[in-house]
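Note to self: the last two entries modelled the partners one at a time, which told us nothing about the interface. This time every component goes in together.
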Amino acid sequence: MCGIVGYIGPREAGDLLVSGLRRLEYRGYDSAGVAVVNGALDVRKKEGKVDELAKLLDARPVSGTVGVGHTRWATHGPPNDVNAHPHEASDGSFAIIHNGIIENYGAIKKRLIEKGYTFESETDTEVLAHFIEDVQNEADLSFPEAVRQALTQVDGAYGIVGISRDDPDMLVVARNGSPLLLGIGDGEYFIGSDASPFIEYTRNVVYLSDGEMAVVRRDGYKVFQIDGAPVSKEVHALEWDLEEIEKGGYEHFMLKEIMEQPHSVADAMRGRVHPQEGQIRLGGLQKVLPQLVEAERIVICACGTSWHAGLAGEYLIEALARVPVEVEYASEFRYRNPVLTERDVVIVISQSGETADTLAAVRQAQGAGCLAVGLVNAVGSTIARETDAGVYLHAGPEIGVASTKAFTAQVAVLAQIALLLGAERGVLSQDEVRRHAEALAAIPAQIQTVLDGEEQIRRMARDYRYASNFLYLGRGANFPVALEGALKLKEISYIHAEGYPAAEMKHGPIALIDQFMPVVFIATRDATYEKVVSNIEEVAARGGTVIAITDEGNRDLDALAEYVVEVPKTIDALEPLLTVIPLQLLSYHIAVMRGADVDQPRNLAKSVTVE
Amino acid sequence: MCGIVGYIGPREAGDLLVSGLRRLEYRGYDSAGVAVVNGALDVRKKEGKVDELAKLLDARPVSGTVGVGHTRWATHGPPNDVNAHPHEASDGSFAIIHNGIIENYGAIKKRLIEKGYTFESETDTEVLAHFIEDVQNEADLSFPEAVRQALTQVDGAYGIVGISRDDPDMLVVARNGSPLLLGIGDGEYFIGSDASPFIEYTRNVVYLSDGEMAVVRRDGYKVFQIDGAPVSKEVHALEWDLEEIEKGGYEHFMLKEIMEQPHSVADAMRGRVHPQEGQIRLGGLQKVLPQLVEAERIVICACGTSWHAGLAGEYLIEALARVPVEVEYASEFRYRNPVLTERDVVIVISQSGETADTLAAVRQAQGAGCLAVGLVNAVGSTIARETDAGVYLHAGPEIGVASTKAFTAQVAVLAQIALLLGAERGVLSQDEVRRHAEALAAIPAQIQTVLDGEEQIRRMARDYRYASNFLYLGRGANFPVALEGALKLKEISYIHAEGYPAAEMKHGPIALIDQFMPVVFIATRDATYEKVVSNIEEVAARGGTVIAITDEGNRDLDALAEYVVEVPKTIDALEPLLTVIPLQLLSYHIAVMRGADVDQPRNLAKSVTVE
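The predicted structure of the combined assembly is written out below.
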């Protein structure tokens, strides 16, 4: 992952780079660094969060109007000062920052060592720096040309920015697999892994595509392919504004985003769900609707929380539209040589639209002749651009590393797709579509009702904050919610929580049950309710602590569970939109009580742009 | 689950029932009891394993030549003396033992309490006993007729045996969803959840089907449906013998079964895999082969370890035969109203052939007009009888609750099916079939090589025995092995271990990584090896402990991993047959060192015959 920022223009670069890195910390925060040119190449880098770097810069400031900055998420070598970026040439003539993984770094390093190069760090990035240096020296090349020729010999994924002492009015940028964009200001240019570092200065951006490089000078920029061919790029205008990516009075982005869900889910349905007419209208799918309706099979590819949304989508689409759905881990899909035909449709889901494995799944699907549909939050992101059609989530920027409002927006959009297909395929009558559309339209207010019960969840968090393990169990539409509830707790509280389909418990996980194992059951009164109650009895019989999420007015579980959390009643397939809310809050409050860093949990990064 | 035994004949019943219960302990072991008639109805029951019951019977013996015995796996109410079976009528005129779940017990109990009945236990079984009593008293019925009429009003799954003080030369037996069979001796009859309690007395058995009852008297037995219609049953001859279900010098059944795998995998291929001819011959599939070859999609349904084998099968069948495969939890499949067409083939996998959810999946598949194929170990089991065709595993009896040799036999059979389909569908040339068949034929000796390395695994177990959490990561064919390795550790050591596809780690689980989290990587040099090595670097960079399973001669990981376990090289898709072996041994040795009861882990039972 890693966050990248760059600046060239009339301002002092140092402060601008640091404030940009703070916005990018969601992408990695184990060490950070900057390089600024002002006659010499000044490099400062430091283990820890951006704050540590800022302290260092207070003590030893830099000066200059061109510079690069980096916040790291370690891939090769532990987080420390030496492994932090930027990495320099042996003679200090240039420095680079890098996001991604150089896969053949081992072989290159070996050759360089044989040639006498020495290495201070364990990173693949230092290898790349010395490799560029070697290519430059062998043929007496300019810095941009050396970068270009070196990259033609590199395997892997990268976003790179280089800065040169000897050619100081220039930044060299290259992208292959890791997101990078240029911000086009008035007499100044910005570079970022996303637009957040420079959004208050300009909203005009150029998205680099894979295999593209740019040379950015004070008076303009040129984009070309790594093979040297020039490329002409369009300038896009950004939609989000700065206020939207700030905390708005909440202690953490995650809590703000949990609390925003009545609005974000409504936004994901606005202009799309029409209960009166019994209609769903998804403009982004209009042109491919015939192909989607005729699909013999839908394959959903995603990672992490989006994969859980995909499982909820499988349930929705199979139940409402009767199309067979298979849900794949994007990372497995791409290497498994999946069996695809042109009658299959592939739906990919990614909040950032930059998830490396999911993007690879898009390309694999298109290579097999399949229609690729994207469910993406970040407008203009790579996946949004490369898919054949798609539906934006319109959830607004999600900054908290643990995804919350993106999940509910994803499920809401999948429900709309399921309804649209159900109607178009003649599976659902107009009355049924209307009934479901009404239920969907009621969801935002119902989410608010669940959020209003936060105090109960806070009490629960106090009771369970010392647990070191958790199980989450659900069935049917709520099985993905069990997985998602467990993932939330893992991500931000570092408690080992695991989700399972409730009936699988007896095939192994029940061995873990004792008085130290709280078990969260999602037990709404749907088709499998009686079976889930039997599973609750089995846990209770073995001394396990039961926490139940159920629907309003159900008093049956009071005797079996320590806590019963009620959510409003809705149609079975839409339940995940409500049952996930208390689990998001539970993980949030437990993490806060354990003193964990909710918005920047250890080891994680928001947008997984390496494989 | 629960184990059931019954006897009527010339012998003393007490000792015979206890020795039968010891054989059935794999089905449950939290409490046990017997009832014997000899003028009065003598009931003895005790919390704990069968040994505790045996001590009680030494102190207070029973006498009589007709009796029933039960070893419990708790569903309703914790394990204790009162909740143990048998449960009696209020006046002690009869007793019943029961395996399964009465789903409408709450409503029935409420009615009975209104009529003045009192309850000592929290079980659904006591409710059934009083309900039978009530039906009997209301209409002055015989005991068998009262059982029959009561059962027509009961929802749920059960295997029941009743014994009456007033009509003592008789046992009443009923089955709906839980396995029961009669052993037909010479002037004596046996009843069992399986044949193990009476295999030394007779090998002639009658399998009861769902909805059937039997009245067994000293001079013969009658089988009829619960609606009263008579049924004529065939007598089958059993294949396994007693020696096969004993430990053969090993300390635990599980270790014996791990060590047997060179033989059991060979048995699963014997007469089926013909490398010279480049042919796979599976007699059990012959009659349905055309339908199987034409399948548009294969859906695999299973639970627990068998579900993991199914995932390995997905990889094998998609890679070698290019048929799309979907793997479903049987418990989810049956309630999800899955989208099935007559061109889909459903393969179910179950060691015991009695797994309740898997059996329900068979019926659902057949109801949708699909061909249902069974991969089953226990010959004559319900799933073997109800599927349209199938392949027996021939792994021999598996007694250890944690499945080991059944898994490798299942994967070996799935590999054969993949090869057969690949050949028949023209995806594989005869040469490719030959090459794969040779690789398969080499597996048993390669497993032996891995087993010969047991000493290294024992050292690893010493190093990691105090860990309280574990992660297991793999990709492609080895992702199911990661899940299976984690499940083994959960089941018998009660360590919270979790499996993940390696690339998903970055989407959440990596937050759990610190110096207390050992991570087992299956990192063989296949198509995704480089990516897995990147994941290993990421774990190492965060202080996690790495244990690597790789292929022979790979020294790349020595610097990154605390232990590197090598397995012989085979074809990618067959790797699970080798990589799973060290993980089985690791879980076994850790569990032994932690003092856990390997063959009878807490809370579990071998054959999950309730939902």
